[in-house]
Amino acid sequence: METEFEVLLDVIRHVSEVQENMEDIAHDLKMRSISHDRSKFDDPEFSTFVRTRPEFRVANYGTPEYEAVVEKAREGVDHHYANNRHHTAYHPNGVKDMNLLDLLEMLADWKAASRRSPDLTFMDSLPRAFKKYEMDETIQTLMRNTIEYLSW
Fold first, then answer.
1. pTM of full prediction above 0.85
2. Is the pLDDT of residue 18 over 90?
3. Distances, alpha carbon 13 to alpha carbons 2, 7, 19, 120, in Å
């Protein structure tokens, strides 16, 4: 039978290991925040987005107008997706190949990107994104719960 002291040591070890694991997650998220979308400073992305910026500014996410601008920017968009794992297109099987940290970065990206939409809110854009990226009900619920938890 374990003594109280041995149980206490085991609990302390467990708490310490969880703290270390959470630090691994926090470190990864911090590094992602520092390096997020760095490829946008490289060509062909930068020049493509400079050229198409005025058109993106007037197109709401998920509309035919938006998709037409994406096609005009295809070279830059493809380069961006190929270099940033928080996009579904980076992965051969889309969202099915992503991890939770990819999803969190993607969600933060969506929130920031939504401010550029002329008249579509972040919450209004979610159903369009869920459909486009073929996200099942579980992932949708996790994302909505996270948005609610963060008061976004």
1. yes
2. yes
3. 15, 10, 10, 48
